[in-house]
Amino acid sequence: MHEMHEIPRKTRERTLLIGMVPSNERVAEMEESLDELALLADTAGAEIVERIIQVRSAMHPAFYIGTGKAKSIAELCKAEEIDLVIFDDDLTPAQVRNLDRVIERRILDRSGLILDIFASRAKSRQAKLQVELAQLQYMMPRLTRQWDHLSRQEGGVAAGSGGAIGVRGPGETQLEIDRRLIRGRITHLRRNLEHVTASYQRQRQRRSAMFCIALIGYTNAGKSTIFNAFTQADTLIEDRLFATLDATTRAIHLTPGQPVLLSDTVGFIRKLPHHLIASFRSTLTEVYDADLLVHVVDGSHPNHVEHIATVNQVLAELGASELPLLLVFNKTDRLESPDALDILTLADPDAIAVSALDSGDIDRLRRTISQRIDLHRVELELLIPYENGHAVSVAYESGDVLHREDEPEGVRLTVRMMPSVAGRLGKTLDAFVCRYVE
Q1: What is the 3-state secondary structure (H, E, C) of 323-379?
Q2: Which has the closest alpha carbon to 5: 128, 127, 106, 148?
Q3: 271 vs 426: CA distance, rounded Å
């Protein structure tokens, strides 16, 4: 596939970041957003040379920042030998085209940058399909700009002239061919994605008897550190955004005799482009399957409240905001004072504050999650005939056996387990004694 706006990894492009706010009161907020954009750009391989915040009451429909500002940026790019200009907001295709003509440097918006990172970080077949689909949907309305840019690069090659292969004839016919090819590719990708997603769903159904926990949170909150502490795994921990797109899932034991599934998911960010929400929806299937979301927050970050709001907003857009949730403030070792720790949990008394680097805190978090799991379990009394040894094994493997008596008719067990397992056992043993204990 032809990838749009691909940033070369071998050479770090000299880059200018641009943000716009409607008033001076919002400048500090934009500084935070540009800090995140700088992290994104660094992840993609850019060297940040300069950053500009423009205060403007309304977006210019044709040039976003206005014609005068666009010309001054063009002069700055020449003086500083800037290769790439990245805007913190999404630009319309017309704005990209107009800015490209004035500034005469590669123009990228936030969505294009995130797509570039997604393309470089996708590893599983599902993630690769999702990213290519999102890229094509992003590319479709920008095809005219792409052909115009190539035409100017080649000195305005006319249709049928002896220009370079691949840029000749940038006319309406070629655009229509490209659009038709992209539409066909989008249809093909959607079908493949449906098959891959269905395969993943079948795999998840086989493990649906287990309680599922998903670690979610703003990017760089420390989810992977907590995941590794719980699982003794070696999940990639990198101080860059979107270190991985694919969730990592492991079976762990929080209570005796009952393994649970723990998933480490991709980190969220602010201003997540809407056309990427669909990609997140498939990548975050572990979130939908979760019996409990553990929302990890960097409690030492000055804007942790905004980070919580961003995650809650993305959960709402994903349709997962009603799932049970435990708020965990991480990185308490970086807090400046004990008072700061009290302030963190003041708004949510059920929240827990930890340092993922402290084994005692990890044990405390483990106990807290175990208590949450207990709230979901039911107590069941079973009388299992001796010839049905498989049901006895399931009871021991999938729950906590509180009491056992070997009677003439069979094994009588009192078990605490998840309702899904209890339901299946109940159906299997409905000809025998099976009752929920109040």
Answers
A1: CCEEEEEECHHHCCCHHHHHHHHHCCCCCEECCCCCHHHHHHHHHHHHHHHHHHCEE
A2: 106
A3: 47
Which pair of tokens denotes residue 1?
């596939």
How do the domains of the chain map onto residue ranges? 13-120, 138-202, 209-375, 377-436
Report the b/e string of 374-405 with b at 16+ CB within 10 A. eeebebbebbbeeebeebbebbeebbbbeeee
Fold type of domain 209-375: Rossmann fold (3.40.50)
Give the H/E segment covering residue 316.
helix 304-318
Spatial distance between the Cα atoms of 266 and 204, rounded to a whole number of angstroms = 18
Nearest to residue 116, comparing CAs of 141, 86, 76?
A: 86
Full strand arrangement of the beta sheet holding 211-217: 248-255, 258-264, 211-217, 292-298, 325-330, 352-353
Half-sphere exposure of 137 (CA within 13 A, CB side): 19
Residue 284's nearest CA partner among 126, 117, 113 is 126
Fold of the domain spanning 377-436: Alpha-Beta Plaits (3.30.70)
As a three-state string, the secondary structure of 157-168 is: CCCCCCCCCCCC
Mind listing the pLDDT tens digit of every residue in the chain (438 residues)? 333 444 444 478 899 999 999 988 888 889 988 988 998 898 888 899 999 999 998 889 999 999 999 999 999 999 999 999 999 988 988 898 899 889 998 899 988 888 888 777 777 777 788 778 888 888 777 765 454 444 444 444 444 444 433 333 444 466 676 777 888 888 888 888 777 777 766 665 555 567 788 899 988 888 889 998 998 866 555 555 555 555 678 888 876 556 788 888 877 877 776 666 666 665 666 677 788 899 999 999 888 888 899 889 888 877 788 888 999 999 999 988 878 888 888 878 889 999 999 999 999 999 999 888 888 778 888 888 888 888 888 788 777 888 999 999 889 888 887 776 677 666 666 544 455 444
